[in-house]
Every structure is written in C-alpha cells, then in structure tokens.
Amino acid sequence: MMGALFLIGVPAQAHHVEKHFQVTGKPVVTVRNPSGNIQVKAWNKPEVMISMNFASDKLQIAGEQAGDRIEVETQIVGENPTSDELKADYVVSVPEESELQVRTDSGDVTVDSVHGNMTFDTVGANLELSDVEGYVVIKSIDGSLVCTRCAGSLDATSISGSFRLIQPSMDSVRIQTSSGNILFDGNFIRRGIYILKNYSGTIEVRFSPSDSFDVAANSLYGKVYNEAPVKPDVHGNTRPPKYSNALLFGSVNQGNAKVELSSFSGTIKILKRD
Amino acid sequence: MSCHELKNILSQEPDGAMTMEVRKHLEGCADCRALASDLAAIRLASLDLPAEEEPHGRVWARIRLQLEAEGLIREPQFEPSPQRVALRSLFQRPAFAGTVLGLLLLAAGFAGVRSLRTGPDITAQAQLPTQPQPSEEAVQEASLNASETSIESLQQVDPQVQAVFKRDFALVDNVISMCEKSVREQPDNDLAREYLNDAYQQKAQLLAVAMDRGTLGGR
Amino acid sequence: MPRTRRSETGELSEADAIRLAQLGDPAAFERIYQLHSRRVYALCLRMVGNTAEAEDLAQEAFLQLFRKIGTFRGESAFSTWLHRLAVNVVLMKLRKKSLPETSLEEQTEPDEEAGGPRKDIGGPDLLLTGSVDRVNLQRAIEQLPPGYKSVFVLHDIQGYEHNEIAQIMTCSIGNSKSQLHKARMRLRELLQETLRNQARQQRQAAKGESARTD
C-alpha cells in the first residue's frame, strides 16, 4: 500500500479537494479511482494539479509525491458503500509531456493533448483519448475506447471492449478483444504493423487509394468484405500455414505496412474511405 | 596523462584500481577530479537501490493461472506435492479456483489440445492418469456453475463492476465452448486452435482481474 | 523415479526443481519462482521504474522461461539463462515504446565528448556529492537508453560481474565495460541537469519571494 504524504480525510461537508504538485521534468502521474470520471488535460505549467469531487464520506483520497512521480488513490473507508457513494470525479491538469497510469473500473476517462506513455487498467470504464502521443497500453474487460488523432503505438486487450481509432498516426497497433467491435480509420504508416483481432463482432478498416499495405484477413465462420485492390503478395511471401484458408492475403500497392485482421465468427470489412 | 587518456582508461576498466599516473593527473586537474567525485557519488547512491525486491503476490497468481490455462502443469505421479501454502494464501477462495481451472484442463484434454504445447513430449516420460472422459454437457455445465460460484464468492465492491464480471464470465465460457467445438470439427486448423488458446487465456485473465478487484479497496 | 533431494525445510533444490518442472510439476514451477523472482522483479523494476509494468514484465519473463524449460540442458547456469530471458523481455518492451526507425545503435551512442560537464548560463557546475538520492537516481536510470540501462542495472545494482553480463547480454566483456562507463557518464549528465533545474527553481522562488516582500 502507499505511504501517504497527505491523507485527505473527509470533513463532514467537504466535497471538493484540490492539490498542486510542482514538477521539474516529465512527470509520471498515477491515478487509481475505482469509480467516477477522470479527466486529464494538458497545460504549460510545470505543475500537476489534481482536483477531486466526491459526494460521500465513505471515501478518502491518499496522495504521494516523490520527485516527479505523483500518485493519487481513492480509498474506501466506510462500510458497504452504495454505487453512488463510491464515485469520485477527478480533473487532472498535467504538463504536455507527461506519463500517465490510470486504474479505474467504471466511469469515463478522457485524456486530451498529452504526450507520453500511458497505461489504462480498467474493468468497464469508457476511454476517450484525443491528440495524445505515446505508447498506449490498455487492459480492459469491458468499456469502449475512442482514440482521435492519436500518434505513437497502441497495445490493447479486452474481453468485451470495443475500439474506435479515428485518424490515428500510429506505427504499431495491436488490439485483441472477444466480443467487441474494432474500427480503424486512419493511415497505415510505412513499416507499421496493425493487428486487429476479435472473436465476434465487426472489424472495420478504411483505406485510401494511396495507402500501401500487405493484408491478411480471415474470419473462420464469418464474412470478409473487401473493397481494396489486393494483388498477390509483392514481397514473395506465401501464405503462412495459419492463413491457409484465409479469405484474403496479398498486397495493396507496394505493401509498405502490415495489416492482419482476424475474427472467429465476426465480419471483417475493408472499405474505401470516401 | 591527458584527460582524454584518463577517460579511455575509465572506459576500458570502469572500476580499475587507481594507478600512480591517474592519481597524479587528478591532483592537477579539477575537471577530472569533479568527474571522479561524481562517479563515486553515483556509485554510492546506487548501493541504495536494492538488488532484490519482493513482487506482489498477484504476479505468481497470474503466472500460475496462465500455466494451467496453457496446459503446462501436470500433477506428478511419483511424489505428493509439498504443501502449497504460499499459493493457497494468494487465492481468496481456493476451492473455486481449483475447480474452474481443473475443468479447463479436463476440457483441454477432451478437445485434444495437448498437442498445442511446444516442448518435449512429456507423455513419454511420465505416466498420466487415465481420466474418465466427462460428457461435453457435464463439462460445460460444471464450468458454468464454477463461474457462478466464483463471481458470487468474490464480492466486488462496486455493483456495476460485479455486473460486468458476471456478463463477461458467461461470454468467455460461451466462447470457450464454441472454440472447442470448432477444434473438434477442424482438428487441423491452426487458427481454430489459436482461438481456443486465446479463449483460455482470456478466462484466466478474467479470473485474475476478478480476484484482484475482489478485495476491499482494490490493490 | 529417484528420490529428490530436499533441504531441512523440505524445499526442492534448484536442480531438482528444474527437472520436475520439465515434467510439469506445479510445485517445481513455484519453487523456481521462489528462488528467482526477487532478482528478476528488481531488474524489471529498475529498468522501467513502475510496479505495474515491472510486474507484467516479470510475469512474462517467467512464463517464457516455463514454456521453454524443456529445452534447458544445463549448458549455462540456470540463473544466467533466466536473466537473459528477462533482459530480452524488458528490452523488447522498451524498444516497442520508441519509434521503429531508430536503431538501438543510434540510441546507445550519444557523443562521447558530451560526457563532460555542460556549461550552463547562470550557474556553475554543481558537484553531485551528497545530492544524489534514490529518487533522482531511479529517475535518471529510467532515462538511459536501453542498452546502457541494462548493463548499469546488472552491474552496479545487481552486482553481476562483466563476464556474467557478457553471457546475459551476449556481448563481449570489453563491450560490457564500455557500456557501463557510458551509462555512468550519461547518468552524470542527467543528474547534473536535475541539480541545475532544482537550483534554478530555487533561485526563481527566492526572487519571487523577495519581490513579494518589497
């Protein structure tokens, strides 16, 4: 457990707490909040500000700063809290260059314009990332991810979570979910690797005529709809044994990126971008 | 000796003994003295960072779950296992964990997934017990029952989270049974086996997260 | 089956645990984990700086070990083999985080001449003596390029000799020594910069305060 530098207990009527942390370099900010919304945005102060709102006296917030590492955690102190009593909402302002680690289980998480590696560990929270840049790791059970104009790379595993990547410029994307839908509407960067896999549901990928990628797409019991001009693999690759029954295997243009789409019984769509 | 030469010596023997030449140079060169002093300060500080750290108990718990999910664990025949006290204490409800995972193993054997395991053929070396083959319905039902027991016995603090787990346990169980069916129908299909393996891993992951969150206050 | 040797407390020896693990004995896996997890986890933790990632990496290292344990024939020390696996797992993860176009070589070769103290406008160079604490050092270590970081952690923190590091990292002994030296030089730069930043902040804070008291 954390040794807390401060423990914000809850005086009877207090529902709002604000804490400022001065930092010198690129901070690593960890937030653990089981239930409630977490909003992270960037500013240009060398400071991390965390502002918390919560409605019950069964919670307390513990925080610790060690150099540029800041950790904040919502702790349950009362007995048998109801769903509402568990909620705490956070608004976190961080320097543009920051690393984030968020652990939460329900609620909405939004991150805007932060550059740094990020890890999200959640049961069912919904994540909205926009204009972030870094290595993003997501481990979820349920919940959705919407990622808009994000750069860097993404590693995501889920069971029923869904994923939408809009205008990403990422050079490595690995998403594995069981029953969630996956949408990828963005560029395939040269030498990029894009692996999208689910058990059921839809995997949809959009491309432009100038995109250049190798593609291997297979759905064991489902359908593949393809609008891309796929020709035989231009690198001289033969189908790997795993894809011997693959419905689609080849190259679009020069095959400069690698796209693998795989589903057990879901539908795979490779559609032209309007 | 020049500063450059001293740096070369350091590069070749970072912890070499101090020679007369080096000592003389340091006496006359403030920059190199500062360097030597700084390097010593770094060395000293690094002694404060421990060479060993105790990982949280959940690390072993997850490894153990994954080993079982991948079928790498076989109960030994020749000697009783020593008391797995450490392992037991990590599991909140040992009964259900053993039940579910035991069933996963049985089911794996039933679906003929043993060949998925890379490595030496262990059947040649150890006599495996002959298990009575359970019927498919029995495995499915028992597995489902085990999931229900596990969720109920692991109280989640947040009812919303509880609901997610309940739904997703059912989902993953369904995926496993569909994948098993697929492997039976297409035993030569590598992709079908891969999906079955993935499904076991997802079940193990789900169990691990449920256990992790099941304690009061998380962590 | 020959009887296995156990210590007074009934624990398996490493050799027996390896043999039994190759046959799938769960207690043997656990014994191997017991014997090595603290060092492996510490290695991961020093390399990535946070417990969540370190736990994942340690978990992955042991899983890879247990999957491959059937192929271990005793040609090298078991712990060397395990550490090589662990270092590779960590390096893979660190490389994934950076852009694919940058080669490891580029990352591990900043200008040697830059190893000297940089002149900063507005402040003399500060000696590190007495100012390097655990937190600053850990943060600086995290900023090292992966190659330097590995050698530094293995040698200066975990106490491996250069010949052992050469086996773990599959490099030459000379290479291990020069990487260690470069790591320490780079750490020096990073720590000096931290000190300069702190000193600058203190000066600004002092200025701010004196302005307010006017």
Characterization of the model:
- The complex is a heterotrimer of chains A (274), B (219) and C (214).
- Chain A has no helices and 25 strands.
- With 274 residues, chain A is mostly beta strands.
- Chain A folds into two domains: 1-95, no CATH class; 117-274, no CATH class.
- Chain A has a 13-stranded mixed sheet with strand order 1-6-7-3-9-11-13-15-17-19-24-21-23, with no helix packed on it.
- Chain B has two domains: 3-46; 58-214, Four Helix Bundle (Hemerythrin (Met), subunit A).
- The longest helix of chain B has 27 residues, at 159-185.
- Chain B starts with a helix and ends in a 5-residue tail after the last helix.
- Residues 76-140 and 215-219 of chain B have low confidence and may be disordered.
- Chain C folds into two domains: 14-97, Rna Polymerase Sigma Factor, Chain: A; 110-213, Arc Repressor Mutant, subunit A (Orthogonal Bundle), CATH 1.10.10.
- Chain C is built from nine helices and no strands.
- In chain C, α4 packs across α8.
- The longest helix of chain C has 41 residues, at 173-213.
- Mean pLDDT of chain C is 80; it is low at 99-123.
- Chains A and B meet through β3, β7 and β9 of A and α8 and α9 of B.
Helix and strand composition category of chain B: mainly alpha
CATH C-level label of the largest domain in chain C: Mainly Alpha
Distance between the termini of chain B: 57 Å
Named CATH topology of the largest domain in chain C: Arc Repressor Mutant, subunit A
Residue stretches of chain C low in confidence (pLDDT < 50, at least 5 long) are 99-123
Radius of gyration of chain B: 28 Å
Helix content of chain B: 55-70%
